[in-house]
């Protein structure tokens, strides 16, 4: 198995189709194949052990991904928003590297340890001009395809190891070869260093779907691109969808006749947001895709049919599934385990554990975290309902322990978000002398509806047990999220602690 196998099939099946588009610049599947071969030769000649990319979305990205696979060198996209010291630390961990970046940054990056630098434009030109290597790519599925640094929301970034067999297994198990028509177009606006970005490249190539790249997300740019490029498929994180809907509400129209499907993931989707989105895009299919970097992207899907069934049903259990991440993929097993590592019954909360061919569960410095039976502990908490729908509470580390009772922040957040006066919220545990931890909520108010602390506490008390009622509610203008839509709970707790001192 090798990612190049996917591109070779696409180039053979529909080589003249546009594979990637950035502005007016394009690459067909055949041109991408040829450029990947040229990039492989350039990469091999450099003597590097890693190929790194520090840049926004561009045509250099797919060329680097497949060129690295052809050369048998791991590809590692880096967060271009990192500070100098953070970037130096990552550069040292992947040295010696062949690092591709925007030409304007090459000079400023000259001091990066162990990095041979090349500008994006030069890399593309060299890849397109160089002849293919004489040897084909290797087919060792255990070879490392991608080193992807996690977001580091709970500490220093970890280098997740994605081997060729993991990502290819995910694609073969979830995507039909050549399923896209010539008119299909996917808009990719997540950054290259997100697993969704890597999965979008592989899945779109295998399906034969044109990828339209958005270098940086803004709701205005997203809306303009969807209309101008007749986008049929798009992936967004929840915070993006919120901003898109807010912008469209000001316009007073949606007007996306080509847009057939929106997938979302990467963070918790508030129930009011997806309800509003489905009403705003009544002809568009919505899919919730839940996965992790360590699982090579999606492991569970709430399908368009599941979305519509939840909205149409009068059964509270079915309605609730709109807050789930759906059913596990057929190729993936999911089990909920307690603190002792034992599987629990349907409806009981615990840690989400997964097993399957696409599951890596491995880190560069730490090795594999799979147990002897191949199960990976995700560190996400949640439960499965009686029909097998998976509900995610949040990170296990975020659980609030109050008087010996484990409380899920997500459960309390869901209830707060049902209040018309709450636009966004975060619930965290803060130190408490009597109970160990107290429940504290931070709320972003909806200006159109008033909501004070006492009213919101009563709202939670009427719907959950009293132990889950926030002892304190703070009101902020906005909550801190990282660039891929994950709530930064550490930042929330730090700010609350500063305000309390």
Would you give an account of this structure?
- By secondary structure, the protein is of the alpha/beta class.
- It folds into 3 domains: 3-216, ANL, N-terminal domain (Rossmann fold), CATH 3.40.50.12780; 288-397, Luciferase, domain 3, CATH 2.30.38; 406-500, GMP Synthetase, Chain A, domain 3 (2-Layer Sandwich).
- Helices cover 34% and strands 27% of the residues.
- It contains 16 helices and 26 strands.
- The strands form 7 sheets. The protein has a 9-stranded mixed beta sheet with strand order 2-1-10-9-11-12-13-14-15, with helices on both faces. A 4-stranded parallel beta sheet has the order 4-3-5-6.
- Strand 20 (376-384) and strand 21 (390-395) form a beta hairpin.
- Helix 1 runs parallel beside helix 8 (195-207).
- The longest helix is centred in the first third of the chain and has 18 residues, at 29-46.
